[in-house]
Amino acid sequence: MAWLSARAWALIVSAAIALAGCAGTQGPPSPALTGPPPKPSISASDVIGRWGLGAYHREEDRARTENITKGQCKIPYVISAGNGGSVMMLTHDSPNIVEVQIKANQDGKTFIGPGADPGGSDDREVVSYDGRVLILKWVDPEVAGRYGTQILVRCGPKA
User: Fold this and answer.
1) Helix, strand or coil for residue 37?
2) Which residue ranges make up each domain of the chain?
3) CA dist list (Å): 89 to 4, 22, 85, 97, 111
């Protein structure tokens, strides 16, 4: 029994020394992780307002869907301001409007979704925005398969 304890002790000491050696080989932190957070390609003021909302599953349907979506302004999808630069939007699988953040990852991609971390499974990636048309793709492939790629077309002023 004493032999097993000595052997176990030797293994623990060896493992501790090995781990201590690994900890000492880390380099300086990456500048990307220590600098300011990346800036999203859009801001809350870009998306607050009235929109026609549609979706498509195939890229060849995008132009047709955009034209149809313009007609949705009769019953617009409204994005309003949240707190501290967030916006109020619907998310997937819920009829409730929630507060979502506009955020960017270290690769420069912009996302809209709950929480502070970019690229989460409940986020939408901003595919493009030209000031009038906003294209959003769900990050989660299963959600994207059900809902498609969202297209929002900005509605003109109320008549």
Assistant:
1) coil
2) 47-154
3) 62, 46, 13, 5, 13
